[in-house]
Specification:
By secondary structure, this protein is an alpha/beta fold. It folds into 3 domains: about 140 residues, Rossmann fold (3-Layer(aba) Sandwich), CATH 3.40.50; about 60 residues, 2-Layer Sandwich (Alpha-Beta Plaits); about 150 residues, Rossmann fold (3-Layer(aba) Sandwich). The chain has 12 helices and 12 strands.
Length: about 375
């Protein structure tokens, strides 16, 4: 339903050494080598400090000279500098929706300093995920607001029932006589995404966290890789922008070491995590999915995490019926000021998945029998 970005977009990938904060752990040459082969990437540039005024001017000139449509910056946290890069590169004609950051410092170099080779491989994954997200981005001005496809919506009203702000109404369809559809008051909508994840028909989407964007990232993060020895779990971690993602950044600031067996996908709220995303990840062989939400009573969107808890409890039962161990899907509470809890939650989940063993769908030809328990 949502746009699939610009098919022939020209993507520039700009990597930051951060004066050694990134480059001392991550081999940026190796990252560049892998990224160079990606679809639509036409320019790779490495700088010692991308956020400096001189470097930003250089990036603007590069974007203008090479007619760049989209940009991926591999540097520090998007919570720190994404808006600055969007503002600076906007002067070069690059739309804000087509600029994304891969968090190579706080959430890679600073938490994987003891596993440099694997950290470099993960860094390349993060950049590739960001490129995939940009290619799936829509260039409309929807921002993070929920949007409705009138052609698909059947007016069931579920979205209206989960909207705590009463930003959604069911109204007569102006085209299909006798039908009703949902409509979103963008002035009231604050972009939590709970309504989008609850929509059974797929009629709803969200600008900055669209289904196309998330699926594109999942497909990169869950791509099957050959095992070169002992089993290494591949875990997907969904974080909310305001709570657990901020905690992940603080874990990096505190240099809390973690195994590089996980990839983070950021949403505005845990309530935005769509069951279809989780099922897609497991169908592609991921060994575990962890959702980290703010603690009950402290959600930025008030009750978003409570909706997540209900949805995940139901989804775990569905996974069990499909033959998966329910433990492979987990929900934990982490506030923005709890980096140690982030580390504990992620490390503990990876250890648990390691005990379970690989998802049998990792191996081509393997099939999960109904009622079986993959290990």
């Amino acid at each position: 339903m949502w746009g699939a970005g610009i098919e022939d977009a020209r993507i520039g990938v700009f990597l930051c050494n951060c004066q050694g904060c990134i480059g001392d752990t991550i081999d940026l040459d190796e990252v560049s080598k892998r990224v160079r082969g990606l679809r639509n990437v036409i320019r790779i540039y490495v700088d010692d400090r991308l956020c400096s005024r001189e470097s930003l001017r250089k990036l603007r000139r590069l974007c203008q000279a090479e007619a760049v449509d989209g940009v991926v910056v591999g540097a520090c946290s998007p919570q720190l500098y994404l808006e600055e890069f969007r503002s600076a590169l906007g002067h070069a004609g690059v739309k804000a929706q087509m600029i994304e950051m891969a968090n190579l410092r706080e959430q890679c170099a600073w938490i994987h300093s003891r596993t440099k080779r694997l950290a470099s491989s993960k860094a390349a994954d993060l950049v590739e995920m960001a490129v995939a997200k940009v290619l799936a981005s829509d260039v409309s001005e929807a921002g993070c607001k929920a949007v409705v496809s009138n052609d698909v919506c059947d007016g069931c009203g579920i979205c209206m029932s989960v909207c705590r702000l009463e930003a959604i109404r069911i109204v007569p369809d102006p085209v299909r006589e006798g039908k009703v559809i949902a409509t979103v008051d963008t002035e009231k909508c604050d972009g939590c995404g709970a309504c989008v994840a609850s929509c059974p028909s797929g009629a709803m989407d969200q600008g900055c966290v669209s289904n196309e964007q998330i699926v594109a990232q999942i497909d990169v993060a869950t791509r099957r890789k050959g095992e070169d020895g002992d089993f290494r779990p591949n875990v997907l971690v969904f974080t909310c922008n305001w709570c657990s993602y901020a905690a992940a950044d603080k874990a990096g600031l505190k240099r809390l070491e973690l195994p590089p067996n996980f990839h983070v996908i950021r949403t505005m709220c845990s309530a935005r995590v769509d069951p279809e995303w989780v099922l897609r990840a497991f169908s592609r062989g991921v060994d575990g999915v962890l959702i980290l939400a703010g603690r009950p009573g402290e959600c930025h969107y008030e009750v978003g995490n409570l909706r997540t808890r209900k949805r995940i409890a139901l989804l775990r039962r569905i996974l069990g019926q499909l033959g998966f161990r329910e433990e492979r899907l987990s929900l934990a509470w982490v506030n923005s000021d709890e980096p140690e809890e982030f580390r504990k939650g992620v490390a503990g989940f990876i250890d648990m998945v390691l005990d379970l063993g690989p998802n049998t769908l990792r191996s081509p030809g393997d099939r999960v029998r109904e009622g079986a328990s993959p290990r």
